[in-house]
Amino acid sequence: MARLPDIILFALENGLKIGTIADLIHYLSHHETLVERTFSKPVTSTHGEFMLYAYTDQTTGEVHLALSKGIISPEREVLVRVHEPLSVLDFLDVTSGRHRFSLDLAQKALASAETGVIVMLRRSESGQDILAALMETVAVKNPAAKWDSRIYGIGAQILRDLGVRKMKLLSSPRRMPSMTGFDLEITGYVANLDELA
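-> structure tokens emitted (197 positions)
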């Protein structure tokens, strides 16, 4: 596997063009849409007023949700939480520890921010999946989820559709693929709510 400087030299010597993975993602994300916004309405939760959006996955028919607060513009940094996978248990057992930030805590964080978005990515959940999640012990909570590039792309397209370009993630810092192909920039992380005070 060659490094970029070697590839550039090889391309120049052989009259070839070069495209990066980010270029490919950028092209595909502008020409192939994985999700379509199919519904929106204002909602009120215990943490205030939000806009609720439903996005239909064009390949599976699954419906993903997003909550937004404030007026989102490409120039402004937006507080973002991507919650995946979304489960009915996330609403019933908010202290389960299944996620670093529960949906309740994410809404609380958005309530204190000027602008924010929570993307809730749904995967099919069987009765056995729910039972297994209920029976998890503390030792196995928050397992490292396997990275799913399709779900990653869906989340990025939802954020871009909502107008997000610069985002501070409501998450612990972690290594993740570049977002530049989706025209998204991660400006930082919020690991706990005390950092928002």
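The two ends are 47 Å apart (CA to CA).
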